[in-house]
């Protein structure tokens, strides 16, 4: 997806922002465009406060002079603006390609609204082509993986531990100190059913199915921006 389209979606999200808002700040390259633009608006006098969803976003927002808070200080947020890996029917999402799904889901759950920003390539008729990120506790990983493999094996598919980029084959470590399994389902015809099964899997901390969170999606195309509602 082109940077110009990410930027266009990020710009259009400001239609949802009002002075004084308490914002959840997402993670990923599209969310980073939004945070960058927010920094410029804050420098020009916009008064908002943000809760970042990752160490990366914390560092970016801090460098831009955006006032930050925590969910301990500010447990109720007005709006989260975040990217997504897939946007399906009813604005059901797959998130977590950037590894921040746990904090992203906690922040989204603390927000009255969630605006997803993306380019049109992220919209799909059915979720599942993008491997579903599942955050797991390192303790007992082999045992948790077996339970996850049983879930996906019925479909003849795979669940792989995400590794850090680079020559060493160390597991990718989330901000919460967990690991991520990427599960290739190819098709997720019933996201609610899968979410319930994953919620009940011991060792799973959280998964990247965001169902019922997004209140709008701003989708950028070459010829403009479309706002989708659930
Ligand atoms: C991070 C996420 C991101 O929002 C998602 O991966 C989309 O990222 P990008 O905007 O770089 O395509 O869920 O955990």
UniProtKB/TrEMBL annotation:
Organism listed in the record: Siculibacillus lacustris
CDD domains listed in its UniProt record: RPI_A
A Pfam family matched in the record: Rib_5-P_isom_A
Gene name of the encoded protein: rpiA
GO biological process: pentose-phosphate shunt, non-oxidative branch
Pathway participation: Carbohydrate degradation; pentose phosphate pathway; D-ribose 5-phosphate from D-ribulose 5-phosphate (non-oxidative stage): step 1/1
Protein family (similarity comment): Belongs to the ribose 5-phosphate isomerase family.
Keyword Transcription regulation: no
Function: Catalyzes the reversible conversion of ribose-5-phosphate to ribulose 5-phosphate.
Active-site residues, Swiss-Prot/TrEMBL: 104 (proton acceptor)
Record keywords, A-Z: Isomerase
Assigned EC number: 5.3.1.6
Subunit structure as annotated in this protein's UniProt entry: Homodimer.
Catalysis: reaction(s): aldehydo-D-ribose 5-phosphate = D-ribulose 5-phosphate
Binding site for substrate: 27-30, 82-85, 95-98, 122
Domain of life: Bacteria
HAMAP family given in the database record: Rib_5P_isom_A
Chain segments annotated as transmembrane: none
GO molecular function: ribose-5-phosphate isomerase activity
Presence of keyword Zinc-finger: no
Protein name: Ribose-5-phosphate isomerase A
């Amino acid at each position: 997806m082109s940077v110009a389209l990410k930027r266009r979606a990020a710009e259009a999200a400001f239609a949802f922002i009002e002075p004084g808002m308490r914002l959840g700040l997402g993670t990923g390259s599209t969310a980073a465009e939004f945070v960058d633009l927010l920094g410029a608006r804050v420098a020009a006098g916009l008064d908002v406060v943000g809760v970042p969803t990752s160490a990366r976003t914390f560092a970016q927002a801090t460098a831009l002079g955006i006032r930050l808070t925590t969910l301990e200080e500010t447990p109720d947020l007005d709006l989260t603006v975040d990217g997504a890996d897939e946007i399906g029917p009813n604005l059901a999402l797959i998130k977590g390609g950037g590894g921040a799904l746990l904090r992203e889901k906690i922040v989204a759950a603390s927000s009255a609204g969630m605006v997803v920003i993306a380019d049109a390539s992220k919209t799909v008729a059915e979720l599942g082509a993008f491997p579903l990120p599942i955050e797991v506790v390192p303790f007992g990983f082999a045992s948790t993986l077996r339970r996850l493999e049983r879930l996906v094996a019925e479909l003849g598919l795979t669940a792989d531990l995400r590794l850090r980029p680079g020559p060493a084959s160390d597991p990718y470590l989330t901000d919460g100190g967990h690991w991520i399994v990427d599960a290739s389902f190819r098709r997720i015809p019933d996201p609610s059913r899968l979410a319930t099964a994953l919620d009940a899997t011991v060792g799973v901390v959280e998964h990247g199915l965001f169902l019922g969170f997004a209140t709008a999606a701003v989708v950028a195309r070459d010829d403009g921006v479309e706002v989708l509602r659930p």
